[in-house]
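Q: What structure does this chain adopt?
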Amino acid sequence: MNAVWHVLLLPAGADWRWMEASRLYVERFRVIPIMNPEIALALPGDPLIVSLVLPDGRPGHTAAWLRQRRPSIRLDPLFASTPERLQRILDARTAHGTRLGRGLWVVTTDRLNVRSGPGFSAPIIGRLEAGTEVEVVGQSADGAWWAIVDPMRRERAWIAAAYTRVIAGIPETVPVLLAQPPQVRAQAPRVVRRDPDPGAPILGQLPAGADREALAQTADGQWVQIAFPDAAHPGWVPKEGLEILRGTLEGLPVHPSGRWLHPPVKSPVIHRAFGVDPVSFAAWGLPGHEGVDFHASPGEPVYAAAEGRVVMAAERPDHPYGTQVRIQHQRTDGVYVTVYGHLMPGALEVQAGEWVQTGQPLGRAGSRGFIHLTVKKEGARNGAYGDILDPMVFLVL
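A:
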């Protein structure tokens, strides 16, 4: 029997809270947490299961992008607008011993009005007799109303959850159906970037006059995330120059901001991403590559990604990382360690116990043509990776 490849595709830019929220589920079912959908597509063979976390409550174009490139893929949507919501869903699955979501069925305990919206003021569009079994397809944000498909009109309708009893499924896994998102229009051509940063990689361009749904915004309100079908993930554009056609940007999910590491080389070009090549790394007991490799010419300076205390600066020909530097960082959410591997022997510029600043030279790149960066967090339990986390979550690129 073929191995089951199962990945948890977290939102782009998700911080540590999302990883911690999925910890028990990842460990229980040996799921590989990633943020880059291209890593999922690179996994060999079938079956391939992708549990796709959808903060905006809709399948979106990421699902379509995956299906187009791998029609045999099995998508498992997880409608979670926050890490706390994701944890409730995944913990419920773990407690029930079920890897994937399953339908929720309820039976009415009284004669119920079927309404067009989640509230007693919404118009009545039908009725259900006591003892009627119906499938729930969603719920209101407060959990007081179930969304069902009206059997007569074949469209979404709502019933009061208090007058029903669950007969199958897990209520926590039912998606919260959000209000219609706002829509914006580009007043002039806008460059669409992968992250809310003017230096982030470009995904494409939003033409003048193009309409898009707004999905999220940054905490300072300067960037807006939009649906962008040309890429695997939604893109980001500056708020300036956008016209709001429908709704309001207030209340949109705020993009997580947990980026505090800087690349260890001046011109960061990724040689090998986190999580790739799972077949080779299985020999080490890892789901994939346990860090990020950056292209670096032999002798090129290597810099500290953040300020901290050097806990190791040594030539280790017996170690897979060879000559390496390790820096400990005290953060408000815990203690981290960055590891810089494959440096040039005899060229280290720091020593253990020394305090270094962000961007301070640590040494020079060795002969391999790349520098390896690993990020660890004390007490972290990132599935089979243990205390190792994806550096891209924290890197300012």
